[in-house]
Amino acid sequence: MSTIERASRAEGRAAYRAIPLYEGGHYGRVEIDLSDNTNQWGTPPAAARALSQLPTSAAARYPAAYAPELARAIADYAGVSPDMVVTGCGSDQILDCAFRALAEPGEAVAYADPSFVIVPSFVRANSLRPVPVPWRVGGTPDAPTLLLDEPALLATGARIIYLCSPNNPTGTVIEPASLERVIADAPGIVVIDEAYVEFAGWSAVSLLPEAPHVIVTRTFSKAFGLAGLRIGYALGAPSLVRELAKARGPYALSAWSEPAATAALAGDLEWMRSRVAEAVDARNRLSGALTERGWRVYPSGANFVLAVPGEGLPAAQAIARALRESGIAVRAFSALPGIGGALRITVAPWPQLERLLHALPARGAAA
Ligand code: PMP
């Protein structure tokens, strides 16, 4: 067989060619990285201690197949029973598994658009159909708010409705009444992504006892400051959680992830809550400062804000490039549906945000 013939066989599934490789998170070394919504206050101390005490010999052995100790600690933290918890390699893996385990190939996954950028890729990678549904716009032109279009989402008849609250990249917290309406009338499964829930203060977990068709996904990557360890989890009815565990397979958490996250839940809740309070404070200050400088800022319940440069300011991509040159990374979007060019800025200790504000162009710089 010739090399050309062999190369023609070395192709993946045709449908995968249209799926983009994820392109966030490659900003390299920058002085201040406000691009990925991780915890800018660092690693929590009890988790760090647990990591430093682990013998390197642990690397030679498999960890527990389904991280049961951590599942028990998460159950306690979330107020559910342990058989309602499944962990995974980041909530990325959990979402991927939920789509694979809970829908038949060819079925639809509907979501409010824009939302978590990787979701349509996971949907297509699992032979499902992404169905974006635009947010409804409320508020005023200067201070818009985004509202869930429940009738449009429900009218898709999708097997899975994915909702993210607070939503990445807009920061939108979905009104509990909207969420309850979708949960009540959804024809299939509802997946609620609560990656940023600790910053918002309201969780859909309280609805789970009455909603066996709902899965809530969460992560240790944001408020808990453990993004590098890759730990996510899902909460839901035991029968659904079991199906997710099958899709996930054994050993998804490393020998370091389970003890570190378990230690964080045992010893770092106070650390986490005080950092969250600081982040919320910094977020509100940052939103106010950007609004004063002529940006349109979307209300956020997360540890980031989405801001659209107003009249007289350069385009979002150009501002992101200029910031990068002064050592600051933010996430730029060139054309979000219904929003346009925007920057998503992760909240950090105030001195870093002050540096950002100083580095931003003044009005009139667009000319
Ligand atoms: N969901 C949302 C909304 C996110 O923003 C992210 C991180 N960017 C994730 C899930 C995935 O987080 P992780 O895999 O680190 O748990």
Helix-strand topology string: HEHHEHEHEEEHEHEEEHHHEEHEEH
Strand percentage: 15-25%
Average the pLDDT over all residues and give the rounded result: 95
The largest β sheet comes out as:
7 strands, mixed
Structural class of the secondary structure composition? alpha/beta
- Tally of strands: 14
| Strand order in space, largest sheet | 2-10-9-8-7-3-4
Straight-line N-to-C gap = 61 Å
Bound molecules: 4'-deoxy-4'-aminopyridoxal-5'-phosphate
Uncertain segments: none
Residues in helix, %: 25-40%
Number of helices: 12
Compute the CA-based radius of gyration. 21 Å
The shape, in one word, is globular
Describe the structure.
It is built from 12 helices and 14 strands. The model has no long low-confidence stretch (mean pLDDT 95). With 367 residues, it is an alpha/beta fold. The longest helix has 24 residues, at 269-292. The N and C termini lie far apart (61 Å). A 7-stranded mixed sheet has the order 2-10-9-8-7-3-4, with helices on both faces. The chain binds 4'-deoxy-4'-aminopyridoxal-5'-phosphate. Residues 37, 90-92, 116, 164, 168, 193, 195, 219, 221, 227, 232 line the site of 4'-deoxy-4'-aminopyridoxal-5'-phosphate.
